[in-house]
Amino acid sequence: MNKPGHSTVLPDSYLTLHYRLSDDAGNEFVSTFDLSPATLQMGSGQLAEPLEKCLIGLAAQQRHLFHLDAIEAFGEYNPQLVERIALSALPPEVELKENSLIEFGAPDGGAGFAGFLRELNETTALFDFNHPLAGKPICFEVEIIGIM
């Protein structure tokens, strides 16, 4: 027999859901509503912690809209996270392309990080390590399809 699912989202629930992130003007950053629903394990880092907090206690088959200010969502924009790095200091296998997100592996093999390459010249690259939505209030719309 199958174990019945939980009636509400718990910190360790496995979910199937649709979600949308947009700004106050309605500009979408990401949406699954016109695609297949997403599946995720709560607490695994697949969804940002502030967004996961919105999901705790929600029931399946309901749609919710959350308005989060910048601090509640992805934090304030931090100009100290914008850094100019010498090309010679970057790993040679990294493909550099302006206006793109560049993934870096951690030296110890742990979780990597990403930076947005804003500017590139012959000797240096200007990276922004802020979350792309940092400093922006967001609307988080979610429809929980199933809770396991």
What does this structure look like?
- With 148 residues, the chain is mainly β.
- Helices cover 7% and strands 39% of the residues.
- It contains two helices and nine strands.
- Strands 1, 2, 3, 4 and 9 form a five-stranded antiparallel β-sheet that branches. Strands 5-8-7-6 form a four-stranded antiparallel β-sheet, with no helix packed on it.
- A hairpin with a 3-residue loop joins strand 7 and strand 8.
- The model has no long low-confidence stretch (mean pLDDT 88).
List the helices and strands and how they pair.
Layout: E1 14-22, E2 28-31, E3 38-41, H1 49-55, E4 62-68, H2 70-73, E5 82-86, E6 100-104, E7 113-120, E8 124-128, E9 138-147
Antiparallel strand pairs: 1-2, 1-3, 1-9, 4-9, 5-8, 6-7, 7-8
What distinguishing features does this structure have?
4-stranded antiparallel β-sheet; 5-stranded antiparallel β-sheet; mainly beta; 148 residues; 2 helices; 39% strand
Count of DSSP E strands?
9
What ranges have pLDDT less than 50 throughout 5 or more consecutive residues?
none
How helix-rich are the residues, as a percent range? under 10%
Please state the overall shape, judged from the principal axes of the Cα atoms.
elongated
Mean pLDDT: 88
Query: What structural category characterises the helix and strand content?
Result: mainly beta
Largest sheet, if any? 5 strands, antiparallel
Determine Rg (CA atoms, Å).
18 Å
Note the gap between the termini: 14 Å
Strand content: 35-45%
> Which H/E pattern describes the elements?
EEEHEHEEEEE
Q: How many individual helices?
A: 2
